[in-house]
Amino acid sequence: MRNDSAEPNGIDDMRNIAVLGYGVVGGGITTVIEENCAKIRETVGDDVCVKYILDLREFPDSPYADRVVHTIDPILADDSVELVCETMGGAHPAFEYSVSCMKAGKSVVTSNKEVVATFGVELLECAKENGVQYLFEASVGGGIPVIRGINTALAADQISSVNGILNGTTNYILTKMRTESRTFDDVLAEAQVLGYAERDPSADIDGIDAKRKIMILTALASGKLVRDTDVYTETLRNVTVEDIHAAEAWGGAVKLIAGSVIDGDAIQVHVCPMFVPWSCSLAHITDVYNGISITSPVCGDVMFYGRGAGRLPTAGAVVADVCAILSDAAKMERNPVFVKADDGCVKPFDEIGFRCYIRANAGQVELCEALAAYCDGTEVLSDKAGVVEVITGKLTKPELDKIRVQFAGIESVIRVLD
Amino acid sequence: MRNDSAEPNGIDDMRNIAVLGYGVVGGGITTVIEENCAKIRETVGDDVCVKYILDLREFPDSPYADRVVHTIDPILADDSVELVCETMGGAHPAFEYSVSCMKAGKSVVTSNKEVVATFGVELLECAKENGVQYLFEASVGGGIPVIRGINTALAADQISSVNGILNGTTNYILTKMRTESRTFDDVLAEAQVLGYAERDPSADIDGIDAKRKIMILTALASGKLVRDTDVYTETLRNVTVEDIHAAEAWGGAVKLIAGSVIDGDAIQVHVCPMFVPWSCSLAHITDVYNGISITSPVCGDVMFYGRGAGRLPTAGAVVADVCAILSDAAKMERNPVFVKADDGCVKPFDEIGFRCYIRANAGQVELCEALAAYCDGTEVLSDKAGVVEVITGKLTKPELDKIRVQFAGIESVIRVLD
């Protein structure tokens, strides 16, 4: 697919790629390629040239103004383009464009977690059928090389669980709530003004972004992509400053944890706020940073940490995938492979017990007696001014729902990461 | 090199490997291969069989008793052995055996940081000349996939610095000193009884182990392997409980940091105890855990964390390299490449300024006046009962040496990781 003849467009002795979507990440790609051209040339063996940029907008002031196209057609028609970076976001038309590019013999690299979490199985199959590559290191954890970490170094190992702080916006909000004792709404509003949170913050604060990322990581770790609807997802909106202070008094921090447990063929995936003890490295991850902890019998806990988003880290991960493909390294890597998880192998969240932090306007005796009916080992954290705080034994969601009905005074329930 | 004919030894339809040195890591290799045989078969395409174990000892009770040999010759002579795991430790005869194996057409995988730090350039050249692979993921960070992390995912990026907690024993000692307010000697003696520290603890506590590991990581990051003697290395023996408490009061922890700075062609590598602020993830790494933080303009700070040693994590990393080679993945990976650093590119440690924590039996005014001659911005932490504690501006080693002469009352000097 290399172009060895001089092109009218004037791009020769180059490996040509196209970028779909010239937003934050797409713009970062051209920057990274410019700034690291020597290192990229050394890795790939040639210069890499962004020959087309697909976007609905024009960029008259950009040095790439003349590369901008408004339909996918010229890219599909140009055999000199061997690889396409899809940084559009959203499932559609990213899915259709990616399929068209692969059918035209072009490898595709993406930062788009939604399209991978939704159509990952179809996209990997399409790549295989067309003898091209489909890579998505940038879809999870920005510049943190966690997907290669799972795929290559852990190749001789069975992963038993993945727990991550996968959304920088919510971790920033939780950090500010803790250090400045400010309410969720207050910090969110500020984050929106500063541009750290979207005007519609739902994807971040309701756990949707984290859910897509843990679906991808779990698919790599288990070989099975679960459905969106199989992931128990709890919003962060209800977490209060009191909860965060209670976690500190207990010995940890509140974090939005995206987790999965892989037990043979059975998989369970969830996203919810959790009490994370200081003994767990994830508790110490603050601000917009992400962390992913992977547990296996051989390696124990391995954690990856870094900026989980942002223009350059994410673009850097896209360009690393570009280099892997253009240097032929990706052909021989243990590439991502997963199939759709069938209904039988997804363990319902309702069956999983977690220790929980409960704060209630209730008497200690009554609450503990009610909890004793469901679990052993409830530990009282404090009991003053009519407010009792406990860490319970393991409780399932249906049990928690019943206890909530029994105690109208329950103010807060947050699971514990053990 | 594969053996497709039935062997008298009865090992057929297998990929045969040998293990040199059946100690802690070597023994872990057979365990990992047994316990993860399904995953390994899936990765490699065949079963992997340990056909020979080279050790001076006999292991009559081991299921591998009949595989034990006492010289390298039968391994070199057996063409069905395509890969050798060198887990002997020490530079010799590990170097000579590894060269012999590669000359006999066998790839070599090692967990031996001493041989890589000493002869890494020669061993990689030898692999190249003989068309085989030489991999050493297990030589740094046990089960933490940091070498692949540097080599593949950061392929499009320039690494500007590496900072690591690379020795679990010293980190365990520092953790115990902090949490139990016990002296260095006391905790070291206990660690020796428990088997966490060697009877001769010098390699750990004098920074030699950490030095070898940072030499390897820096070689991967910069393409240049510095000499042992180019690494400024300071023992941990002089760190006191007072220092650790002072770090806490300041807002961080004392850690044995192995660090390097890569600035274009100039490299600087050092190992020394440092004040690490809580804002840096490395400060939160406790017990025997290791952490490696890599900084680059594109990705910012990326950190890898996990058990840096131990039988199974280290053996798991060896087996991951075995799988990479036997599945042909390693052929196309961006394999480790580095050359010897020439004298010109190693920046002398004496030229590098660090902020420092200084505790002295002296008057605040006198100490600050003396420091003012060398650096700006000295900050007084405390001044009571004739003991003054300060954080200085940036000071080089020669400057510190002069100040020590000037102030006989200086009890402690520890650099700050900024």
* Overall pLDDT of chain A: 91
Strand content of chain A: 25-35%
How far from one another are the termini of chain A? 51 Å
Query: What gross morphology of chain A would you assign?
Result: elongated
Biggest chain-to-chain interface with counts: A-B, 54 and 54 residues
Assign the structural class of chain A, choosing from mainly alpha, mainly beta, alpha/beta, alpha+beta, or little secondary structure: alpha/beta
CA radius of gyration of chain A is 24 Å
Q: What can be said about the biggest beta sheet of chain A?
A: 10 strands, mixed
| β-strand number of chain A | 18
Number of helices of chain A: 15
How much helix is in the residues of chain A? 25-40%
Spans of at least 5 consecutive residues with low confidence of chain A: 1-11
Oligomer designation: homodimer
Explained architecture:
Two copies of one chain form a homodimer. The first copy, chain A, has helices spanning 24-35, 37-44, 73-77, 94-103, 113-129, 146-153, 168-180, 184-194, 202-205, 208-222, 241-250, 311-326, 329-332, 364-372, 397-406; strands spanning 14-20, 47-54, 68-69, 81-86, 107-110, 134-135, 161-165, 224-225, 232-233, 252-263, 266-277, 289-296, 300-307, 339-340, 354-360, 379-384, 387-395, 410-416. Chain A is built from 15 helices and 18 strands. With 418 residues, chain A is α/β, with parallel strands linked by helices. In chain A, helix 4 (94-103) packs parallel to helix 5 (113-129). In chain A, the strands form three sheets. In chain A, strands 7, 9, 10, 11, 12, 13, 15, 16, 17 and 18 form a ten-stranded mixed beta sheet that branches. A six-stranded parallel beta sheet of chain A has the order 3-2-1-4-5-6, with helices on both faces. At the A-B interface, helix 2, helix 6, strand 13, helix 12 and helix 13 of A face helix 2, helix 6, strand 13, helix 12 and helix 13 of B.
